Amino acid sequence: MKANLINEGAKYGLICGLSAVLLMYGSWAVNVTTFTNVMFTTTFIPYMIIILLLGGFSVRKLNGGYLTFQEGLKFNFLAYAVAALIIAVATYILYNVIDDTLTEKSAQIGLEKTRAMMEKFGASEEDIEKQLAASGESMKKTGFKEIIMGTGLGLIWDFIKSLLLTLVIRKEEKFEDQ
User: Fold this and answer.
1) 67: β partners
2) Is 77 exposed, middle or buried (0-12, 13-18, 19+ CB in 10 A)?
3) β-bridge partners, 171
């Protein structure tokens, strides 16, 4: 039985998207500092990659142990696209409907962390001020336009991750000459 790549990609995208939303809203419910720390940390913790690896191996198993590069890429990128859409909607709701001061509060915490990190690495006060000014300017609001831009740029990175994940999960059938 062949796996339906659209259904499987959508299913695993839903799992990834809901996981991200749970982390986002759960950490926000604790407090803004926790929210900011979790959002920063989840950028580097590859929980979605782990979910998609498990999903990809499952899809390959459903396909009789084989998965072409094209099928794997279709599955992975669809999952990332579904997750990105869910995350974009949830982000807009959180930042603009539930807590419209969240951008300002989390930006302030982020700037404090940036200053502390730069001081730790021995950056000059002038360099720190330049970086904080540039970062502060980009953190003014989290509106529809910013979320769409972020999602679009994120999908480019997600496509690259999809390519790499596909290299891991694919298994092509070998045809021998007669």
Assistant:
1) 171
2) buried
3) 67
At residue 79, φ and ψ (nearest 5 deg) are -60, -45
Angle, helix 125-138 to helix 102-120, in steps of 10 degrees: 160
CA–CA distances in Å: residue 89 to residues 37, 43, 52, 96, 168:
21, 18, 21, 11, 30
The reply to whether the predicted model has a pTM over 0.90 is no
Cα dist from 20 to 15, 58, 76, 86, 176, whole Å: 9, 21, 16, 9, 44
Return the ∠ at Cα 54 (arms to 48 and 60), rounded to 5°.
130
* pLDDT (tens digit per residue) in 28-83: 999 998 998 898 888 778 899 999 999 999 999 999 999 999 999 999 999 999 99
Tokens of 144: 């529809």
Residue 28: name the closest of 118, 82, 91, 84 by CA: 91
> 15 near 58, Cβ under 8 Å?
no
